[in-house]
């Protein structure tokens, strides 16, 4: 209340948000395990068995993170049946921009031709896309935004030590995007409540020490954390959405390691998820693309007919921070 007795007005809000479209972008250049074995002491069998990757996409030096993000974003806007003028907010989840300013989102918006949107980046590493989906849904619900373009985009190849076999075989480049808009009725709500958090005590287990450094990670520590902590977070997201594990049609976790994906899926099935729940395995041909891995997996599964309209999809992202987030969404 102001001193003059007036109260501030809020913009009428939507009951929730729904997803209107998806898009993705990957570099053309495919790098196989055998290619990497020419440079570091590794082999195809070790990488397939321990991580699940067969090949990954790596961008050339002239392809920027914002190029991949803009490509994915444009496709998502078209998939939504919208044009750039319909989007009023652009959010890019990324942890691999080459410079702190300017942010990726304003550049991406400019490349796509979106005029004067709210534009900001968000860094929650591999949890970034789910953080972004949560932010977008809440912005729409509060009336701050109408149609939000959420992009997860990474050029991890810029931050890799190509002589470190424990990291260069895992990470890759790419971008994935979703457009979210208002649900007009409660029945139309397509983005469930966000479950999110972090554990800063473990901040050193995945890190880039300074601008001139490369990614280092304590793989075993992260592996143990992910295989024990992620299933409860996923189950909480299901519960908050008012569903049960049996309602989940598709499970799309961050594509960190196929063994982590399978371990979490096993725990969800023990908790009641169906045997026929489809589980994303996009890491096999995309590698670990951090914040891009979830929307890339979804877009590829849609193209392959493995996700269709109305499917209930469980998302969960986790990584450096450590940070994590998840929610249930309904596919358009
Ligand atoms: O996306 C962000 C979140 N990140 C994650 O979730 C990553 C989680 N962690 C992992 O995915 C796995 O821990 C890694 C894939 C990073 C490593 O797999 P691992 O089964 O945990 O292997 P390890 O680190 O325990 O290493 C086992 C052995 C070691 O050799 P010794 O000491 O047993 O002789 C490593 O030196 O494998 C060796 N090694 C390799 N061998 C062949 C490590 N990297 C390689 C390699 N090729 N590329």
Secondary structural class:
alpha/beta
> Percentage of helical residues?
25-40%
Tell me the strand percentage band.
15-25%
Order of helices and strands: EEHHEHEHEHEHEEEEHEHEHHEE
CATH class membership of the largest domain = Alpha Beta
> If you compute it from the alpha carbons, what radius of gyration comes out, rounded to the nearest whole angstrom?
19 Å
Distance between the termini: 41 Å
Overall mean confidence score, pLDDT: 97
Globally, the shape reads: globular
Q: Give a quick account of the main beta sheet: strands, pairing sense, barrel closure.
A: 5 strands, mixed
Number of strands: 14
Bound molecules: oxa(dethia)-CoA
The tally of domains stands at: 2
- CATH topology of the largest domain, which one? Peroxisomal Thiolase, Chain A, domain 1
Which strand order does the major sheet show? 1-7-6-4-5
Helical segment count: 10
Low-confidence stretches: none
- Supply the CATH superfamily name of the largest domain: Thiolase/Chalcone synthase
From the 3D coordinates, which CATH architecture of the largest domain would you assign? Answer: 3-Layer(aba) Sandwich
């Amino acid at each position: 209340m102001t001193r003059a007795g007036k109260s501030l007005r809020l913009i009428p809000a939507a009951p929730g948000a729904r997803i209107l479209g998806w898009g993705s972008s990957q570099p053309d250049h495919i790098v196989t395990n055998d290619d990497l074995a020419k440079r570091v002491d590794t082999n195809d069998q070790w990488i397939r068995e321990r991580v699940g990757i067969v090949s990954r996409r790596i961008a050339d030096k002239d392809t920027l993170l914002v190029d991949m993000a803009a490509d994915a974003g444009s496709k998502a806007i078209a998939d939504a049946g919208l044009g750039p003028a319909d989007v009023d907010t652009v959010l890019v989840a990324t942890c691999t921009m080459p410079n702190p300013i300017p942010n990726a989102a304003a550049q991406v918006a400019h490349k796509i031709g979106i005029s004067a949107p709210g534009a900001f980046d968000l860094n929650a590493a591999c949890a970034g896309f789910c953080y972004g989906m949560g932010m977008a849904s809440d912005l729409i619900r509060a009336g701050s935004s109408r149609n939000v373009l959420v992009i997860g985009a990474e050029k991890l190849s810029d931050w890799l030590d190509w002589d470190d076999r424990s990291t260069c075989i895992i990470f890759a480049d790419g971008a994935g995007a979703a457009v979210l808009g208002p649900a007009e009725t409660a029945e139309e709500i397509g983005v469930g409540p966000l479950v999110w958090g972090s554990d800063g005590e473990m901040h050193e287990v995945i890190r880039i020490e300074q601008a001139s450094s490369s990614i280092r990670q304590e793989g075993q520590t992260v592996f143990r954390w992910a295989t024990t902590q992620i299933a409860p977070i996923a189950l909480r997201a299901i519960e908050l959405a008012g569903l049960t594990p049996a309602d989940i049609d598709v499970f799309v976790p961050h594509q960190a390691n196929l063994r982590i994906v399978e371990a979490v899926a096993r725990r969800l099935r023990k908790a009641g998820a169906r045997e026929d729940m489809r589980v994303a395995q996009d890491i096999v041909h995309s590698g670990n693309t951090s914040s891009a891995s979830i929307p890339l997996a979804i877009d590829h599964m849609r193209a392959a007919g493995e996700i269709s309209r109305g499917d209930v999809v469980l998302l969960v992202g986790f990584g450096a921070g450590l940070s994590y987030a998840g929610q249930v969404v309904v596919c358009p």
